[in-house]
Amino acid sequence: MSPREMERPARTFLNWYRRADYTAYAFNTRPVARNPCQKPFLYYLSSSSLDKSNRTTVTRYNRYKESRSPICRWKLADPSALVDEVVVYKKPDPSLWDRAPRRNCCRVLQSLKVGKKTMAVEVGVCREDEITEAL
After folding, report:
1. DSSP 32-101
2. pTM over 0.85
3. SS3 109
4. How many CA atoms lie within 13 A of 2 on its CB side?
5. pLDDT per residue as tens digits for the range 23-65
């Protein structure tokens, strides 16, 4: 999925007024897939801390496990069995609002907890040759 497509939030919310539909919002949304095997996995914030020595925020997210998951026939490894926790590392960037576009890039790090289903992600200023927008 391209960054431009990801910028549009998925319709994972309802309008306060029952008569209004998704076009009532002042921003553009993308539809959620109807196929239950294409539903996004839900991760909830479990903890947040500041590593003062590295000046980095560390946030941890745990996957919500549904009691009844659909049976999906994947042509690759089952993604629901791969990642139970996501750890995000981010250094504060006071000059972010002075740059355009105001995007950061994500880098998947090698997870230190071998055997545990953890994905580590570093968020920061985009480096040379990192994609920041769709062509």
Report:
1. PPSSGGGSPPPEEEEEEEEETTTTEEEEEEEE---SS------SSS-GGGT-SEEEEEE---TTGGGSSS
2. no
3. strand
4. 5
5. 666 677 777 777 777 777 888 999 999 999 999 999 999 998 8
Tell me the C-alpha distance between 25 and 125, whole Å.
30
Q: Residue written as tokens 């990192």?
A: 130
Give me the residue label for tokens 């071998």. Answer: 114
In which residue are the tokens 């042509």 written?
75
Strand pairing category for 85-90 and 118-124: parallel
**Domains of the chain, CATH where assigned:** 1-32 (no CATH), 37-135 (2.40.50)
| Residue 16 token pair | 């306060």
Identity (one letter) of the amino acid at 123?
V
